[in-house]
Design a protein that fits this description.
Elements (H helix, E strand, L loop, with lengths): L1 E5 L5 E4 L3 E5 L4 E5 L12 H4 L2 H18 L4 H17 L5 E3 L11 E5 L6 E6 L3 E5 L1
Antiparallel strand pairs: 1-2, 1-8, 3-4, 4-7, 5-6, 6-7
Helix pairs in contact: 2-3
Protein name: Translationally-controlled tumor protein
Organism: Muntiacus reevesi (Reeves' muntjac)
Family: Belongs to the TCTP family.
Length: about 130
Amino acid sequence: MITYRDLISHDEMFSDIYKIREVADGLCLEVEGKMVSRTEGNIDDSLVASKKYINDYMKSIKGKLEEQRPERVKPFMTGAAEQIKHILANFKNYQFFTGENMNPDGTVALLDNREDGVTPYMIFFKDGLEMEKC
């Protein structure tokens, strides 16, 4: 089994037990699941609802990539700019989720539903994740 962890907070975000596919020319991973409701505290919407958060997150990922995978910096920054335009244009469709530690510097997963209105899927920036074999 492979688990995918947030590159910054190291929180486990998902595993390969879910249907995963690359989207946005390989920049993002789309993870299909099923809806299970559970609440564990509140998230400050201002953390995820602003361009400042997105810009800060992109800078954090860029810094990690410069340290660990410098060949990915340019493709990530170029692709991310386009993907962010798409995210902001469809902002009202998304729900936002963080890892269990709720680290404000970590990734925020975007949740939307397929056209059937029932099947949820989450979007993650692939370069913001690290894979771990279990």
